[in-house]
Amino acid sequence: MNILIIGSGGREHAFAWKISQSPKTEKLFIAPGNAGTSEFGTNLEINISDFQAIRKAVLDNQIGMVVVGPEVPLVEGIHDFFLADELLKGIPVIGPVSSGARLEGSKDFAKEFMFRHHIPTASYFSVTSNNLEQGLDFLKGLNAPYVLKADGLAAGKGVLIVEDLSETEQALREMLGGMFGKSSETVVIEEFLSGIECSVFALTDGKNYKILPVAKDYKRIGEGDTGLNTGGMGAVSPVSFADELFMKKVEERIIVPTVKGLQHEGIDYKGFIFFGLISVNSDPFVIEYNVRMGDPETEAVILRIKSDLVDLFEGVANGDLSERELVIDPEFAVTVMLVAGGYPGDYKKGDIISNFDKVEGSILFHSGTKISGSGIITNGGRVIAVSSKARNLKEALKQSYYNASKIQFENVYFRKDIGFDL
Ligand code: AMP
Ligand code: GLY
């Protein structure tokens, strides 16, 4: 079967690496892909939101399955677009229909969903300019710090955590006034939860599910979890505090009610569910849902999946996921992200990356790279995820750090403390 992956980051490179190993894969295409994905398939210069261009590419290349990496096309309804098209409707799309993608596309919907299905999460109140006074009253009843979330997609930037009440009120007014455009016309005010976070992933066919390896990502730019938020500076899997007992609670209290809740609400959800969790005194609470795999978590998690991912995806498409096998490697996987100097603020693109040939014992998943006449150049803030697997966390980290220090481009930066807290 020919397979098309949508997206251009480290997650999609990791998918391409894994999918290309399946005996079920004939030709692989990635739209738009990056320098790394081109090693495993054909990159197609297509915008991820241009469904007509994707349609044409699917028909021209006799694609038999589409794997959607990022959230934007899912929230915009790519799966619904396929279902509504005579020629495309039989082609499986791995990723939910837009009604399911609301779990990520609308924080207000996600919170209501969790309350409807008794899934543990922070208490909240949703505000628009029409009920601002009630929102301010709710805020006054909370303890600092205060959490404000833009309802819609905001490229990972829509969450503000503010210490001071009057600054929070000011920020709330600014959000409603268009700080994140339409995405913050509704703002979710949340109770602040204190604990340690992890990322749990499930793959579901709408009824059955498989739990993938748990991971922890490191979101802040600076060591010791300081400084600005980024897309993610590294990840490790497994996560020591997410032990068997914790994961049992996650499954019973969160995964099962989520999958059943979707079914109950008539949402035929086929794809990944990413549970952003926080452990509060060893009890899991949902911080957020995403409707895709995490990045950079995928660049670690994928190394621990021994089974054929395409076979699992066929299980998702056919509704017989329970009959497919998921074997997880007990070893430790980590990834360390190399970023461009200045990121997550302004940074340069187009710098030559060198020393690929000096890397041994790690896999480089490209996040933001491009092939140019002069070689492989930087093409994003997050540039390369250096992924390794070993018997223990320390060895896996040692391996990634050894190789991270080999790769060179101007002003390369990476955190030296991934996994420091575990
Ligand atoms: P999100 O975009 O929803 O993942 O939020 C970004 C980050 O804000 C999360 O990874 C948490 O670190 C933090 N956060 C979000 N909601 C809460 C909350 N209710 N309590 C504490 N921290 C939160
Ligand atoms: N690493 C967090 C995310 O993918 O949203």
Short description:
29% of the residues lie in helices and 26% in strands.
Describe the structure.
The protein is α+β, with helices and mostly antiparallel strands. Among the domains are: 96 residues, Rossmann fold (3-Layer(aba) Sandwich); 67 residues, ATP-grasp fold, A domain (Dna Ligase, domain 1), CATH 3.30.1490.20. The chain has 12 helices and 22 strands. The strands form 6 sheets. A 5-stranded parallel sheet has the order 3-2-1-4-5, sandwiched between helices. Strands 12-15-18-22-19 form a 5-stranded antiparallel sheet. It has a 4-stranded antiparallel sheet with strand order 6-9-7-8, sandwiched between helices. Helix 5 packs across helix 6. The chain is globular and about 60 Å long. The two termini are 41 Å apart. The site of glycine (GLY) has 6 residues, from loops. The site of glycine has 6 residues, from loops.
Structural class computed from helices and strand pairing: alpha+beta
Number of helices: 12
Task: Give the C-alpha Rg.
Answer: 21 Å
Overall geometry: globular
CATH topology of the domain at 2-97: Rossmann fold
Structural features:
422 residues, Rossmann fold, 5-stranded parallel β-sheet, 5-stranded antiparallel β-sheet, 12 helices, binds adenosine monophosphate
Task: Present the secondary structure layout.
Elements: E1 2-7, H1 10-19, E2 28-32, E3 42-43, H2 51-60, E4 63-68, H3 71-75, H4 78-83, E5 93-94, H5 98-105, H6 107-116, E6 124-127, H7 132-140, E7 146-150, E8 159-162, H8 165-179, E9 187-190, E10 196-204, E11 209-211, E12 216-217, E13 220-222, E14 226-229, E15 234-237, H9 244-264, E16 271-280, E17 283-290, H10 297-301, H11 309-318, E18 332-339, E19 363-366, E20 369-372, E21 375-378, E22 382-390, H12 393-404
Parallel strand pairs: 1-2, 1-4, 2-3, 4-5
Antiparallel strand pairs: 6-9, 7-8, 7-9, 10-11, 10-16, 12-15, 13-14, 15-18, 16-17, 18-22, 19-22, 20-21
Helix pairs in contact: 5-6
Residues 217, 232, 290, 294-295, 297 line the site of glycine (GLY).
